[in-house]
Specification:
Blueprint: E1 18-20, H1 24-27, H2 34-54, E2 74-77, E3 80-84, H3 85-92, H4 100-108, H5 125-159, H6 168-206, H7 212-216, H8 224-236, H9 242-249, H10 269-278, H11 285-306, H12 312-356, H13 371-378, H14 385-400, E4 407-409, E5 428-429, E6 433-435, E7 438-446, E8 460-463, H15 471-474, E9 479-482, H16 490-498, E10 502-504, H17 509-512, E11 518-522, E12 527-532
Parallel strand pairs: 7-8, 8-9, 9-10
Antiparallel strand pairs: 1-3, 1-4, 2-3, 5-12, 6-10, 7-11, 11-12
Amino acid sequence: MYTNVTDPIRGTSEPDRYWTSTNLGEACPEVMSPMCWSVWEQSAELGWLYSMYAFGVLPKRKVVVSPDVNDRGLSCFFGRQALNVDAIKEIMSALPGIDADDFERDLMGSVRPDAPRFEATYARVPVLMFKAPYALLRTGSRLRSLHDEMYDYWTSAVFSRTVSKCEPIEDLVKARERFQRIFSVHCVQRFMFQGAQSAVAQAAAKAGDAALADQLLSGVGDVNETKMADDLWRLGQGELTETEFLSKWGYHGPNEGNPYTSVWRENPGPVRALAASYAQRAERPAERAARAQASGAEAERRLLAATPSARRPVTRWLLHRMRNIIRTLQIGKAAYLMAIDAARAAARTFGAQQVERGVLDQIDDVFFFTIEECEELAAGRLPNPREIVDVRRATRADYKAMVLPVAFRGMPEPLEVDDRIDGATPTELSGAASGGGTVEGRARVVVDPDQEVELDAGDVLVCRFTDPSWAPLMALADALVIDIGGSASHGAVVARELGIPFVIGTENGTRVIRDGDRIRVDGPANLVSVLATAHRPEATPA
């Protein structure tokens, strides 16, 4: 009897470490299985360290995964990924012109009063001056090249199911290697976006209109998620076939950052439901995005008019550069999601092999092993695999029932919450970031990505998180209220691109707001007001 079943997804932390699930909670929102974490763990840690090496902040010898999780940039707690805020800030403080507190502010909406201060260091400035320009100039083209290479592989090996010459376990290991390589370059682009966003905000503030920053980040144009939503509209209008749509976007799906899910190529049901909704809409997402582009162009005109003439060329270049960074960032995300889908496909092929050999009972049992354990399983060296599956499946179910705080010190304490907040229910919410205009409408609360929901004109989408698979649903909404995220997160980027008012990072919007409530989303004021509840129409307006 195998009595010592380890728990790869529980996590551990010293009591004074400050963690947050913001951003990573969006990238990988569902409680991870052991395989999910084994795909992400070293890849994500090496990815962000590589980005610091690419800029010259770290020497190459320090791009290694620390054996002490307290020194790492990220970890896993009860199946949820979290960032080690102070560990990241300490390394980022070596970037000249970057205030490490800006990183925390962008993530959390504010900086802790007792947050440790990390003074800027200049020891590596000569290396930075040599390496940073190269990273700035070459990362975009590298990421686009990796995307095209990954798309060719995904189309052939995953979507078209070309028979592999390798054993399934070999394909699984190679898929993780692809993910790690792509995610590392994506992290470089992600930090470039962080810097560009701060620079745009500073330019708007110097011009005397800080509120312009959100509009300047809007209407970038040619963003992947907008193109996907537009293709879904075309599918609904009969201009594309389902196969054509899935061959471009089939690696997306609910909780797509977790390998232990089913994406659209495996289950096209959600695509058909969304296409049916788009069939009823005359306006296509591309038209909505065009209006946002016009708004962004007007914001640029106003910024340049308020900027001294000597600084206008640099400001114009900054805005052009920032838009390219945003476009490429979404391309990088698509590339690493395809790599995750390749791992998903290889894992299920390996699972089917183990079922055929009588080792496992179900194909998806394979997701309750790490990739290293799968290698042992393939070699016949892993004892009692069925018991491991049973114990870890039950443990993951327990973790799914937990509600964890977005930010915490040490090991997180699960929150004691009811399914719905009653009694003194708040009538106003704010978030970590917001933007757009002001909209009043019916709230449609979606807590399960597999949930089918029809959005009518004027509806407001209220959800826990978004990933790229949510973009078509977001494009049907008149406003967004999102529990998890910040100014640089996916939900904010897509909302700006579509010109949709949003408040993101509310933490508990999906529990406070009831489906059917009438609410007001005021992007400029960072405020969501419950005007009337679905079950108590006499509620006092905010």
